[in-house]
Structures are given as C-alpha cells and as structure tokens.
C-alpha cells in the first residue's frame, strides 16, 4: 500500500492494476497517510487558500434520463422550473456583493435553453461583471455551440465524464447517451480553450475498483483543470433508489489520490460530500480539496434541483451560506479567497 503511495508521489501516476490495489487498500491508516501527503501537495501549490464559486442552478428541466439523477426526464414528480435571465443576473448581483468572482451556471439539458438564450445570458453576465469568471455546466452540446458560448464570454465548462468504462456507462445511462460523445465534448471544450472540469461519482451503482482505476487513468490522460468528484447518493424516484450511497472515506481517499496525481488541479469539496457527512467538506479540504461551490440559486427553487435525496444548503439565503462556509473553512485552518481562482495551468 505505502509503496503505491510513494510511487504515486514520485511518478504522479500508476498503472491501472496499481491504482486498483491502492484503492482496495483504503483503510483508516492509509487514508491518514495519503491525506497528509495530499495536504502537503496542496499547501505547496495553493497555500491554505480555498476558492469559492457561486453555483446557480438555472433549470431542472432535462431531456435526458440518466438513471441515477433525480431530475431526469422520466421523473414525473419533479416540479420543473427555469430561471429567467433577470433572476440569474439577480443571483450574480447578490453573489458579487458577497465576494464571489466565479459564477457557475448549472442545469439539466433543457431544450428551451437554446444556444441563443445561453449566449444572451452569458453575454449579460460578462458585460455586468467583466472581472468574473463564467463557468457553464449544462451538458453535452455540439462544438459549434460550445464555441458560441465561449465567444459570448464563458471561460470554463464542467462536464463530469461520469465513468471511463463503456459497460459501466451503459449501466448508468439510457441507450441514446454514449461515453464516446461525452469524452468528445470534453476534448472539444479543451480544444476551444475552455478551462475544463471532468469527474465522477464515487460508489455509483455497479462501480468496481477496476472502474475507478480507469477513471484515474482517464483523468491523468485528459489532464483537466478541475475534477469534480462526490459520493453517489440515491434519489427515491430513480431505479437506484435502494442502492447504498457511496463511501465518504473512499471519496476522501480519491480526493487525495487526485491531488497527488494532478498537483495543480482545482478540486471541489462537493455538496454531496457535505450531505453524507456533516463535516464532509471540511474533511475534503484536509484531503486536498481547494474549492467549494456554495449555492446562489433563489431559495424558492433550491429544493427543486434535487439530484439526490437530503441535499444540504437548500434553505439558507446566499449570505448565510457564505458565512457558514467561511466558518467551516477556517475551522480546519484554511481561508476563503475571493479572486477568480483561475487554474495555475492557464498561467
Ligand atoms: N446536465 C449537466 C449537469 C449534471 S448535474 C451535465 O450533464 O453535466 C451535475 C452532476 O451531479 C452530474 O454530473 C452527476 O455526476 C452528479 N449527480 C447526479 N445525480 C447524482 C446522485 N444521485 N448522487 C450524486 N451525484 C449525482
């Protein structure tokens, strides 16, 4: 076990079989060791700074039917909403006043959010907040669409690959979606000059240690600016309702592996991690995470963006969230910074 941690630190990667052995050996002791090493790497590259991004959940309408997701098209029990451009700008205004310099617009693949509409919204945010980064996370689009969004002012794009294994991808998604296309989107985005984020759920139904090893090999090859990972959490209205949630410890272990493998990567401590463990995000920072994405969505819509059950931070106003997070970050010796937090890889 220790030998693989040492090798990972020296060579910044492992062979698939070595990754598998490393992950299989995740126990309390090895978690402590790898967390320490990852903290060292973070400290060297980022000091004790944690970047914040304001998350605006712009629509819960979706044309896809990803089997794990609470807002998939086939769920008839979702009260659907779509924020107006005015409402999105209002979220940015509140966020800006609270020190946010990155806005993340996330949503389902909503057919009513046409390219024109997205471009208009992005251009408006760009015009009002020239000093802020704009991140999109609205799923799979054509390269032409991504290019238009970029020209309108978008800087970054988050698109988790979900799993790098074909068969596992099939198990989690309906026929019409493909891993090939998902990966192509990531390469297109990178090619267009976006800062990109990939990632996956830890403990997704059907996931094996071999799959996770493949995810790590894929991330190393893709070399994204950001990696979003969080535990899978079942949603009661999906076919995976009875599946167990992912493991917090394995998520923390993987955060550390990724920090060591990609020292400069932006790595969020996710809301899903904070949902499964009340101190999950703090533990995330102590495992090498250096980003947190508090919710800036209008409070009245937050419960409707329910990807999984019991999601936290759905009741508080933005200002309360911001204060709460500062305290959490400081409680483990880190501090929130309010600059754009571009990837050091862009320098
Ligand atoms: N439509 C966009 C945004 C998806 S939601 C897109 O396709 O990229 C953002 C992420 O939430 C997903 O990529 C997925 O990894 C995660 N997610 C969805 N359902 C989840 C669940 N039940 N538990 C944990 N994470 C989930």
Describe this structure in words.
This protein has 347 residues and is of the alpha/beta class. The protein has a six-stranded parallel sheet with strand order 2-3-4-5-6-7. α4 links the parallel β2 and β3. α2 crosses α9 and α5 runs parallel beside α6. The longest helix has 19 residues. The relative contact order is 0.17. The mean pLDDT is 97. The protein binds S-adenosyl-L-homocysteine. The site of S-adenosyl-L-homocysteine (SAH) has 19 residues, from loops.
- H/E topology pattern: HHHEEHEHEHEHHEHEHHHEHHE
Count of DSSP-assigned helices: 14
Main sheet record: 6 strands, parallel
Helix percent reads: 40-55%
Structural class: alpha/beta
Q: Determine Rg (CA atoms, Å).
A: 19 Å
Shape type: globular
Q: Uncertain regions: pLDDT < 50 for 5+ in a row?
A: none
Mean pLDDT: 97
Number of strands: 9
Strand arrangement, largest sheet? 2-3-4-5-6-7
**Strand portion:** 5-15%
- List bound small molecules: S-adenosyl-L-homocysteine
Distance between the termini: 35 Å
